[in-house]
Amino acid sequence: MTAWAHSLIRISNYEVETLQKRLAEITARKASAEMRLAVLDAEVEVERERARADANANMLLGAYLNGWKARKGLAEADLTTLEGEEAGARDALTDAFGELKKFEHVAEMTRLNAIIAAGKRETAAFDEMGLRRRVS
Length: 136
Prior knowledge:
Blueprint: H1 3-53, H2 55-135
Helix pairs in contact: 1-2
Coiled coil: 16-50
Organism: Brevundimonas goettingensis
Keywords: Cell projection, Cilium, Coiled coil, Flagellum
């Protein structure tokens, strides 16, 4: 493999690895946001159950639900943002991986062409040696 091809492949591998790490980090943040939404849903169910059993809690339930809706809205907005980031990161990773495969293909074709050219030179040398023997 030529030095330029090796360098391009190494750089592309680094880019793919960096994008994989970025995607993993985004996926972890997305899982955390989904967990936060699940916790919010569980908390509201607990508060509603408490309000059914306690008259004082029932009076405060409306205020709690207003705050809960605001927190849930923020969590849903965060999740939507993270889903967009995840889609962008996946697209970037796909593109980077495609570039890496192109460079690897070019390097392999260069290597195969060099082998073919060496074989042709060797065949030409043997043909020339055969012609010289025949002439002698």
